[in-house]
Amino acid sequence: MMQEDGPKRVVGSRVVKVLVHRRDDRGMSLEPFASRCVRQGEVHELVTTDQTDTTPGARIDRVGFLGFVEIGNAGVIDRGDEVRVDGRLVGTVLGFDACHHPNHYNILISTPEPRTGPEVGMNPELPVVFQPA
């Protein structure tokens, strides 16, 4: 079996807006890509879900919205990366939804139940990192 992934840098970001709502009928669609490159200064949305299907095009309905983050350093975010808010583990990257791209990606985060920004202690300027598990 050929190994594809080597070591990578942690992608740092900061909260720019906290979101407080959830939905059971969102209808996001999982992109066929297990990783996305992000650039310094980009803003992306963080969305939690308890759904686990990683099939390309899988419909993601049960979601909690965490908020938006500004990327602090360019890097690669991979499915399975840990997402930490102010050092606390929130979940792992499930994949990406591009319904708002090129404005931003929805970065889908696997959690036991959909959670919102206040439920994970998000506040503007808190650090959020994406790092290998």
| H and E string | EEEEEEEEEEEE
Give me the secondary-structure category: mainly beta
- Helix count from the secondary structure assignment: 0
Shape: globular
**Overall pLDDT, averaged?**
96
Q: Distance between the terminal alpha carbons, to the nearest Å?
A: 21 Å
Protein name: DUF6917 domain-containing protein
Pfam families: DUF6917 (PF21891)
Domain DUF6917: 7-131
Question: How does this model look, in words?
Answer:
The chain is an all-beta fold and 133 residues long. The chain contains no helices and 12 strands. The protein has one domain (11-131).
What does the secondary structure layout of this molecule look like, with pairings?
Elements: E1 11-18, E2 22-23, E3 28-29, E4 35-38, E5 43-49, E6 59-60, E7 63-71, E8 75-78, E9 82-85, E10 88-97, E11 106-110, E12 127-131
Parallel strand pairs: 5-11
Antiparallel strand pairs: 1-7, 1-12, 2-7, 3-6, 4-8, 5-7, 9-10, 9-12, 10-11
InterPro entries: DUF6917
Domain DUF6917: 7-131
Protein name: DUF6917 domain-containing protein
